[in-house]
Amino acid sequence: MRGYIGKHTALVGALLATTSMASAEDVEVLHWWTSGGEAAALNVLKEDLQTQDIGWQDMPVAGGGGTEAMTVLRARVTSGNPPTAVQMLGFDILDWAEQDALANLNDVAAEEGWDAVVPDALKAFSMHDGNWIAAPVNVHSTNWVWANKSILDDLGIAQPTTWDEFVAALEAVKASGKTALAHGGQAWQDATILDGVILSTGGVDFYKKALIDLDAEALGSDTMKEAFDRMAVLRSYVDDNFSGRDWNLASAMVINDEAAFQIMGDWAKGEFLNAGKVPGEDFLCFRVPGSEDAVSFNSDQFAMFGVSGDEAVQAQNAMAAAIMSPEFQSAFNVVKGSVPARTDVPNDDFDDCGKKGMAELSAANDAGTLVGSMAHGHANRAAVKNAIYDVVTAHFNGEYDSETAVQELVTAVEINK
Length: 417
Ligand code: BGC
Known about the structure:
About 55% of the residues lie in helices and about 15% in strands. The chain contains 20 helices and 14 strands. The strands form four sheets. A five-stranded mixed beta sheet has the order 2-1-3-13-6, sandwiched between helices. A four-stranded mixed beta sheet has the order 9-10-8-11, sandwiched between helices. Strand 4 (about 125-130) and strand 5 (about 130) form a beta hairpin. It binds beta-D-glucopyranose (BGC). Beta-D-glucopyranose binds near residues 64, 65, 66, 140 and 300.
């Protein structure tokens, strides 16, 4: 906008400057949406803001789960130059709120009636001390499996409904010479698998005790050992080159008929859709077998960092209002693979996986089986999350057997909680 003004006469420039003062400013947005599907969803946001004359400065930091983005954010804040709007997850939002770094969004929240439409599970992270501090753009969940339909059909494999059936299906694919489980060996991806495996192994109450309450007995239990044993079983079905692979490249293996399954949050669906694949025809989406009654969720929210100047604040508020509009929530989440963060958005435009996701989120919310994802910062603070990541990854890579992993887990959580 400012560069554009510079190319015009002083008079026009002055007029535009006046207009821009009233309504327009740039927002600098720090995010980790860098895969093909994520970029497609990000475009929906960029274009929406463009129509409202809000300029966009892109600050992408690659790395699923946002660990790298959060490191960059810390450096920017420390050097006194925070970005205006930041994609953030769960407890990270609360951490910054406690440091008084976030803008107060109460006015826009009141004007737009957020209180009535944002579910409590999300408000727990969008609000702090009774103030709105972030605008939730979506709800993702992690306990999903994405499957290549033609591989399953060719091998006569039905969609697995129990853990044992799932393992039998993995075994049949492996025997056929294809990769059974597409996975990327990165700590956050290993942890993402663990969310679903713990739900499937121990159920929702066990998940809550172990990962949310950090109960030492649950963390050190035989059930936790069994969960690690299941992780070791999954490890035996990934290909030799899994180490360090990005999650979207693992999704591409399923998309391109190289692998049968991926356990990943529903951002994976964004990759399938971006590749022109159709749910039910080309790919299947189902919960990690044994975890069907539960939803481990994470919500991407945009937190606004303290900026000076009315225009900048106006742009932040305009962005927050835009993100929360029901039309935007539908358009964005249809592409992203997630579901809306407001309860009043119709499911008409969503595909079958999206409709399933919306219905299951609402059912889990009613039944008390909606739990924050450990892997994506909705179960505990970053220190605990990172401590769990370390143990899970060491075990996945064969450094610890399951017994040792359980002991290490208890100790690591105790030290970091
Ligand atoms: C975010 C998603 C993102 C995924 C992979 C998750 O933590 O919530 O929006 O697509 O990481 O980058």
